[in-house]
Every structure is written in C-alpha cells, then in structure tokens.
Write a sequence for this structure.
C-alpha cells in the first residue's frame, strides 16, 4: 500500500522516539487540533509514511504518547510504595519518584494539563482522572498503613491524603509555570516535612482532641 | 453609526451582567477562539450592537471579565488580611474567603485555567501570574507576621507559604475537576489545620533542630 512504501524496513526505536518527542512539543505549544501530521513529520525529519508505520495516525501517536507516560507513572508508583522504611520515608520516596518522572516527562505533563483544563481539541479520549486516582490511592494506602502502625496520628485519611497530594501538586505546577523558582525535589521534601510535623504520632497524641 | 443604533438608551446593568455570564460559560466550554460574538449575543438574547455598546468587542468583553474578577480577588485579599485574630485564624480566613470567591466565580476560574494551561487562543494578554503573585504575597505577609509574633515556628518562609498555598490550590482544583467530592470550605479548613499542627510554635520549638 502507498501508505507504507516509505516506511523503514526495520523498526528504528530512535525514529519512533523522535516522533513522539517532537509531537509532544508541538501539541503542547500549538495545541493538538492546530498541529498537523505534516508539521510533526517535518520537525522529526521523516516522511509521512514513517509516522503512519509507527502510529497509523496523529490520533494513534497521541494515544501512544499518553498511554506510554501513564504506564511509566504506574510503574513508578507500584515500585516506590513497595520499598521499606518508615511511613514518612515511604511517602517522601513516592512523592520524590513521581516528581522525578514529572521532570523527565515535563512536556507530556504540560500537554496533559492543556487537555485537562484547556478547551476541547478533538483528541481521542484518554482517562486523565485515572492518573490522579492512582496517585490518590497510593498515598491513601501509605496513610492507612501509617495509621495502623501508629506512625501517623488519628484523623480523616482523606484529609491527610489531600494535604500530601497538595504539596506534590503545587511543586509540579511550580515546575510547569515557574521553573525559575527552582522549588524542585529539595523544596518538595521540605514542604512535606513541614506537613509531617503535623501528622506524625507525637503531635497527633498531644493534639488529638483538636482533630 | 450603524454599530450603536440598537444600543439601549440607558445602561442596563442586568444586560451587561448577562453578557459577561454567558460569554464566560461559552469561553470556558468551547474555548475563546471558537466562540463568536454572534453566539454570545444569541445566548444573552440581545443584538450585536448591545455587546458593542458595553464592551466594544469580544476582546473587550473578555478583558472586562478577567479584570473584574481580578479586582474582586484583590478586594477579598486586602480586606481579609486586615482583620484581627491569631495568625492561624487570619490564614484560615484568607484561604476561606479566597475560596469563597472561587466558588462564586467558578466559571471564570475555569476559564483562567483554560487560558493558563491550554493552547494559545489569540486572546488579549492578561497577567494571570499577578493573581498568583498577589496571593503568594498575602500569605507570605501573614507567615512573616506569625514568625515575628512567634505563633509560627522557625523555618523557611517560602516553604510555609507553599504548604499553605498547596492546600488552598488542591481544594480549588478539586472544585474545578471533582465538585462531587465536596471537599469545600470544611475540607480546606481541616487540611489547613493538619498543616498548622506542623507549623505552629509548639512543634517548631521541639523540632527546631530538624529544620
């Protein structure tokens, strides 16, 4: 078929990655709807059939992009909650490693924000809330473990999850909007520590009646 | 001129408000670029000259919309930091009243998020970062006051501001994305209280060496 004549004879991982990378940047900068297949292949210095070979279409490329990032995110979450240590260490590690992935995939994160908050752009459906939900559940699991082990004080599990989520979330949004502030890993860790001084058992016991 | 022939002879506040309201909804739902003047006037049941009379153009209407919300936001911030009480009470009040305005203007907030994170839509420039900056400074002022009065423990002012900002921010984003969770004012207050158990003096003194 005409569509595959110009395709490489062997899959070339680097070309596929380059297409994903330039498409992410174009989608994030111009918007999904305003980015054409022609622009993507031109930016990647390949021909249209190469894009069709790997992804079938702009829609296919987009889905691959977000699904791939989601899989990496799930891996990070799954492995980071399994490690050992105190609950404080585990929560710091989870947030740290999720933030690490955010930095590596900052353009994909920018794109996700644009899709999530921006006007409809006619892209195929992807359940962005699932990302949020998975992270919520991971933090929730650690908070509940911390309560069982009495490393965290009494209180509403949900509130503690939101407080932790809020610290991670504002650090991510700072990175998206004001990377020059350089809050980064170190800032995230300091903010979480401030919060832990509130939710660890020692304080919880003394102030239990106020909760 | 033809453009003003259909304008009302006396300014009608309700009509102006209705135009702002329907435009906000259309901009937020369809995007700024995809919304036409024709659609706005149709949704408000007025003629085009009425829109031109009040706002001159779609651009003018949009600027009025965001500037008006910004002014209200500044008023809320200015008045709520002036009240009396402990620093904890003052910070809770500030967050509570900002969140109150967010609920009242939730469609404008949605629009601001779409402009801030979404693809370029050709709207006239508005400095959304100024909103963020004003709120940051207000919280910063209260945190510094709290440190001076020894109601807050030692630590980096910036970290405490981000921790407080993070709690407010995640509550606002919950309201935008998942209003059904009903975190709301009560949830925001509980999350902030969790945080205060960490940043209030009693804990600061005991854990001062870890900061």
């Amino acid at each position: 078929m005409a569509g595959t004549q110009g395709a490489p004879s062997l899959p070339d991982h680097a070309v596929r990655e380059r297409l994903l990378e330039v498409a992410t940047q174009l989608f994030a900068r111009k918007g999904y709807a305003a980015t054409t297949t022609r622009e993507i292949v031109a930016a990647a210095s390949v021909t249209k059939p190469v894009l069709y070979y790997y992804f079938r279409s702009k829609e296919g490329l987009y889905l691959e992009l977000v699904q791939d990032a989601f899989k990496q995110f799930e891996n990070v979450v799954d492995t980071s909650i399994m490690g050992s240590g105190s609950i404080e260490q585990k929560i710091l590690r989870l947030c740290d490693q999720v933030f690490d992935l955010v930095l590596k995939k900052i353009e994909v994160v920018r794109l996700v924000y644009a899709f999530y908050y921006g006007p409809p752009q006619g892209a195929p459906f992807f359940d962005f809330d699932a990302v949020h939900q998975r992270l919520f559940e991971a933090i929730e699991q650690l908070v509940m473990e911390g309560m069982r082990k009495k490393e965290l004080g009494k209180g509403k599990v949900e509130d503690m999850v939101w407080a932790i989520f809020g610290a991670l979330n504002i650090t991510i949004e700072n990175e998206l909007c004001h990377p020059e502030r350089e809050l980064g890993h170190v800032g995230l860790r300091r903010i979480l520590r401030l919060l832990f001084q509130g939710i660890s058992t020692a304080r919880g016991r003394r102030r239990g009646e106020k909760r």
Notes: Confidence is low (pLDDT under 50) at residues 1-5, 198-211 of chain B.
